[in-house]
Design a protein that fits this description.
This protein has 220 residues and is of the alpha/beta class. It is 47% helix and 14% strand. The chain has one domain (2-219): TIM Barrel, CATH 3.20.20. Homotrimer.
Length: 220
């Protein structure tokens, strides 16, 4: 049941912050600012040095939901290339795993531990292969190679597929992706690049609020 509840919560949250940085402290700070702005699904990429330290810190802080639901966020791991990395991330507290491509051992490991796994895919063949392995959500990556109309196109032959575009999703096209039927959307550097360049990490909070408002408007 926990896996199903996580998937439901991720779908309802709608926006996933994909965070990359130069250190665990930097991405933890990014995550805190994004959560402050209302983005409640955080993906820490395993390209961050000592990424598991960041996942552990965030999991300990945010994965203890109180009675009112405050101080809660879903923390996961991204850019997971193999099962060994997935296992390390899960042990550190990650609640979901995202991969840039479909790796069968990674999917099987996540299924073993009932952890949502979102592998990257680009074609009907890849999405079908993911579904056959029991994948619940496929990451359309890189999303900037497509227009939002790709989702209903793919779901013509595969109506059972849940698709999350990542890469190329911004404030200007988020509504189009949501209206096209995206399970959720992944937001990457657009959320953080200005903050990193200026040193004003409060900009992440402002951007996060803008993304969540755009998402709410798209769902109307």
């Amino acid at each position: 049941m926990k896996k199903l509840k996580l998937l439901q919560d991720m779908h309802e949250a709608g926006v996933v912050a994909v965070l990359r940085g130069n250190s665990p402290d930097e991405v933890v700070r990014m995550a805190e600012k994004a959560i402050e702005g209302g983005i409640l699904v955080i993906e820490i990429t395993m390209t961050v040095p000592f990424a598991c330290d960041a996942i552990r810190t965030l999991a300990m802080k945010y994965q203890s939901r109180d009675a009112s639901g405050d101080n809660y966020a879903i923390i996961g791991a991204g850019t997971v290339l193999d099962a060994e990395t997935a296992r390390a991330a899960l042990l550190a507290g990650a609640e979901f795993v995202v991969s840039p491509s479909l790796d069968e051992p990674t999917v099987r490991l996540c299924n073993r531990y009932r952890a949502p796994v979102l592998p990257g895919a680009m074609t009907v063949k890849e999405i079908t292969a993911a579904l056959e392995l029991g994948v619940d959500v496929v990451k359309l990556f890189p999303g900037n190679l497509y227009s939002p109309s790709i989702i209903p196109t793919l779901r013509g032959p595969l109506p059972q597929a849940n698709i999350m575009p990542t890469g190329g999703v911004g404030l200007e096209n988020l509504k189009d992706w949501v209206k096209a039927g995206a399970f959720a959307v992944g937001i990457g550097s657009d959320l953080t690049k200005e903050a990193v360049a200026s040193g004003d990490f409060d900009n992440i909070t402002r951007k996060a609020k803008a993304y969540m408002e755009a998402y709410r408007q798209a769902k109307v």
